[in-house]
Amino acid sequence: MSESTTYDAVIIGAGVIGCAIALDLARRGLRTLNVDRGPAPGHGSTSWSAAIIRPYYSTTDGTALAFEAHFAWQNWEEYLGYRPESALHYHEIGCLVLEAAENRKLAGTRSIMREVGVPFTNVATSDLPEWLPGADLRQFSPARRIDDPQFGETAGDPITGAMFCPTGGYISDPQLATAQIAGAVEHAGGHFRFNDTVLAIHQSAGRITGLTCEKSGLIHTPIIINAAGPASRWVNELAGAHHPDQISTRPMRQEVATVPMPQAPQGPSLRYVLTDADCGIYMRPEQSGHLLIGSLEPACDTLEYLDSEDYETSLTEQWTNQVWRAALRFPSLGIPNIAQGFAALYDVSEDWIPVYDRSDIEGYFTAIGTSGNQFKNAPLVGQLMGHLIESVANGADHDRSPLQFRLPATGRAIDLAAFSRLRPINRASSFSVLG
């Protein structure tokens, strides 16, 4: 039996964001298709996500969205609407955020958390040794490269305190999570085509009419959603939706290190997700007794933006710098002779805040700039985009009168102008993976 060539909506990309959008649209009664170059759901940048679940962002709307998403991960089977064969483990271990000069000692973060209603506990300097056994709790900021003569120097002043958020942790397998959302899409009647590349996007009189794929040929649809991750910039160019005066995205190369977990007499030195702006890194426990280390993009690190999707997959001195900064915090950390971890591409916007929006072309929508910090939000992004797409299709002028999206668990409304392509660069952003 031949495959259909007509759908109500086509999502370009089958990562965690693309699958979540397809699920919501399918539940709204649309006949959906996800097209992806990869062999299966979540095999692109999603598979390289650190998959951290945390509620703290630099903006109120971003924080509200992340806090809401926590409930979807907590009630995973309810979100999916079916019981998958393999259990997905949400390690709800909480997140510890250290105060630092770089985050203004969390004054702004705490204010936003209180406004949104996110629970957190303040941790005093005197209590930090119990939270981080075996850690060196002196301040080392600003973060430095290891070839800096002042690397590792400290005046001896202690970290001034921290904040602990219980509604957080990490997902053990981001690819499995995406596959299970894709399973829910299929239960809802959605379709997928893998190992296929979009060659052209078609429009007539300013309206989307379809797309042409390398294997599938011409597909008719009035709605296309760009959820292509690091390829999103070029998908926008195919559609003629790339405008220099609007928020745009481009791929950035990132490295994440995996090392053996440092140990203290009390056990593992780290039992939580740790955001350490003082050392310019984040860390979380990894399975099989390991520690995962990523960068918070401190000023000393050069951000590696790319003009194509071709990138060096081998680990470099960036891995070494991240691991050595982690060793400042945990002196017992063993630095292996062979670098382990991964290099990957993230799709980031100018202010690291995603674009969830319509476009100047009728029927063309974007969910881009999501890599690095939006995995956790995917279940709610699907619903947000479904609300946006349905509202615009019914005549809402989102550009003139930005839509509100009411979060189902907390009941809070968020302003979708915060994710508009037309917004100015948000100077309140962390300009890092923290969003």
TrEMBL record:
Pfam families xref list: DAO
Molecular function terms from GO: oxidoreductase activity
Keyword Transmembrane: yes
Transmembrane segments: 6-26
Keyword Transmembrane helix listed: yes
FAD dependent oxidoreductase domain sequence ranges: 8-387
Record-linked InterPro entries: FAD-dep_OxRdtase, FAD/NAD-bd_sf
GO terms for cellular component: cytoplasm
Keywords: Membrane, Oxidoreductase, Transmembrane, Transmembrane helix
PANTHER family hit by this protein: FAD-DEPENDENT OXIDOREDUCTASE DOMAIN-CONTAINING PROTEIN 1, SARCOSINE DEHYDROGENASE-RELATED
Name recorded for this polypeptide: FAD dependent oxidoreductase domain-containing protein
Lineage of the species this protein comes from: Bacteria, Pseudomonadati, Pseudomonadota, Alphaproteobacteria, Sphingomonadales
